[in-house]
Amino acid sequence: MNGHLTVFELSKPGRIAVDMPTSDVPEESLETLVKAEYLRSKPAQLPEMSQPDLVRHYTALSNRNFGVDSGFYPLGSCTMKYNPKVNEDVSRYSGFADLHPLSSPKEAQGALELLYTMEQYLAEITGMDAVTMQPVAGAHGELTGLKLIRAYHRARGENRTKVIVPDSAHGTNPASATVCGLETVEIKSNPDGSINLEALKLAVGPDTAALMLTNPSTLGLFETHIQEIAQIVHDAGGLLYYDGANMNAIMGVVRPGDMGFDVVHLNLHKTFSTPHGGGGPGSGPVGVKQNLIPFLPTPVITYDGNQYYLDQDRPQSIGRMHSFYGNFGVIVRAYAYIRSMGADGLRQVSEDAVLNANYCLSQLKEHYHAPFERNSKHECIITAQKQKAFGVRALDIAKRLLDYGYHPPTIYFPMIVDEAIMIEPTETESKETLDGFIEVMRKIAHEAETDAAKVQQAPHSTVVGRMDEAQAARKPVVRWKD
Amino acid sequence: MAWSYLPHTREDRELMCKAIGIRSTEELFSDIPVSLRLASPLKLPPSLSEPEVARHLSELASANKSVRELVCFRGGGAYDHYIPSVASHILSRSEFYSAYTQYQPEISQGYLQALWEYQSMISELTGMEVANASMYDGGTALAEAAMMACAAGKKDKILVGGTLHPHYREVLVTYARDQAMSIIDVPPLDGIIDLDRLGWLIDETTAAIIVQSPNFLGNIENLKEIGRIAHAKGAFLIASVDPISLGVLEAPGVLGADIVVGEGQSLGLGLNFGGPYLGFFATTEKFMRKMPGRIVGQTTDNRGNRGFVLTLQAREQHIRRNKATSNICSNEALCALAAAIYMSALGKTGFREVSRQCLQKAHYTYSSLTALTGCEAAFTSGFFKEFSIKLQKSVTKVNEGLLEKGILGGIDLGGYYPELEHHMLICVTEKRTKEEIDQLAREMEALI
Fold this sequence. Notes:
A: alpha/beta; 7-stranded mixed sheet; 10% strand; B: Aspartate Aminotransferase, domain 1; Aspartate Aminotransferase, domain 2; 17 strands
């Protein structure tokens, strides 16, 4: 059984899915226009399909895929909230979608105003002094932020090369540090994922460039000693970097800028409702405090009270991070979201997100091991520790959830919790949805005890079963070959 | 007040608080030090209803002049190609766009297969053995290619053709600075890389040569010869290409490129004021395990079905952390899907035809414009869909005049290269008609 055929298998010479107009200019032979040695010797073997077949192909593929609109998607750390439809529509307005990035600013005042205003909104939400919209993903924001930090130290004549990262951090934190040419110093967290102050004190020094921190932490818990942490890092001359992955927990409640963070990135595709797109496009704006503004990437959007401009003349800037101004189309959606919600709405978002996570935790902690006593923030952690005794692991529970029509929570992250199952319901899920999920999770816990094999062999009802990932990696087949 | 994206009623919230054992949601934030908590609401404009949002955004959109209103002769890494209707319809399916990364292959087969097909088509188009599932954009894909070349070759010097897109060069320099990578420019001659200068500058410490072809000035570079020069010194050839050109121009893989990257916006993505765009990244099998980004591989499931999974994840940040080949996580998956739809919609003959028409129409425009008094060809090198002309007047002034006639004129090259003052970079895609081109020539004649 081959499942669904690929475009290459569906291809038949002579078919095409879009009619092309005939060229109406006088033509010359290709050989007169281009040196013969530069001409393509063998046409690219792209598939040939009729329009109806093409549409059926991709529709069939979409039916073999699960999105937030398909059902509950409590993937921890990813904030899979509903994507409002009006935002999709407004991003496709011709004035945005068909606007050339090298238009003169005069012809792009609406776009520049939107970007400029968005910077102000995000600065207010995070408590920072300025924001750049250029980074196009969370990790891209991290890299931008770390570059700003390096530039700041460099301008002060200091070459600080170490970034402190707790062992509970997202993998992108240490990876971004490496891409920024910095060395990662990993410190052990307390068992609840909070920063171990003693370990931090030992780790900081004259070579500390920054501490990267997520707050609430990747375990969904608020770092209550944040002011002390900021003090320790700042006293050592380092800066505090805020990984905004978990911003959905605290909007309108508390701001990274007020906690002492110097640099923050946000994920508009998480907190600000833009679609994840199956892994992008995202947007990862970065906010900074006053002392880092000179280093922001160019061009910087400025406003003279009358017109918006692109300012390239920033001698201390880290330079350009993106070919143009970031993922503008994503930013339009997030802008529409902020305008829809307003300050009260955003606060309600965070309250409901936190309420939903705690509700799930409260209803599951009898059936699953819940490692932390405290109230969580927007995501909660349970583990498969109890089920492990029956040979059922977090992975099996995740796969069994597929049979019941749910996207599973994040599993095995954070790595410091054994058999972790991290649930982030988000605020856009109703009590009924959560109750349905809770019931299924309880049922699976019961199945683990009574019929472990059923869980271990799950999923049973999906279009394909568990994949041989070892085979895929051992002999990679990453493209079609005749 | 009720928000349409928030389902909870007051009763729901009360019931849930009760179940948790708290009086109000306020208690869930009680662990946040009081001194840190916001005392007053955020200073944001009041919330708008859906029709109000639509109206407000429509006003902002109409304060821009899009290529829907103008006849576009501007390119420079962002191109006004025709986007088949099927693309937007398929991309609107929220099973695709509202999903996240395919960590659960059993319910992500559709996307995984589409990305695998995308990788196959990019490999085919570029003439390379493997491609990843996307990078952020043309500039960052190039920077990642440079980093990969340095890591693979254990060297840190990169020679960059002076004809590279100046924005890509800026991105590269930004990435390079903290990587201790040295960037050395190879000056152009007649609008293409000066091969003699390249020969003098390259040595055994060179990790790679970066060449854009067709380059920023529109001209086609001699990739084969540059590849030979690179390989003779043990350096890699990184080619940044316009994918549309590959309908007519030889695949860089055939010409000896080791890494091929580029901006995929031309493949069915809107101009979007510069993003979201699509970085594509293709290379040889030898480098597969050093590639950045997601890679989809074919495999079988426990029932014997063919299926697809994210593979070679041991390269990636979520497994390898600070030893990862790149920090990229979210990429531009939906844009890769758009490109896959575009390439399969045009197919073998349609893709070639788009490419051919770009070439033909650009050359017709070139002949029409260079026949005018006061406008001459800037270079003698061959070009694809963009070319540079030299005027005797300020390009800004000419563009202002064109705009009044509803034409978005070419790029002012003097803004990037002081020595190219009064030079304009014109772009002609398959969308332009003879009538539009003739109109451009008429208006130009009046303006220069």
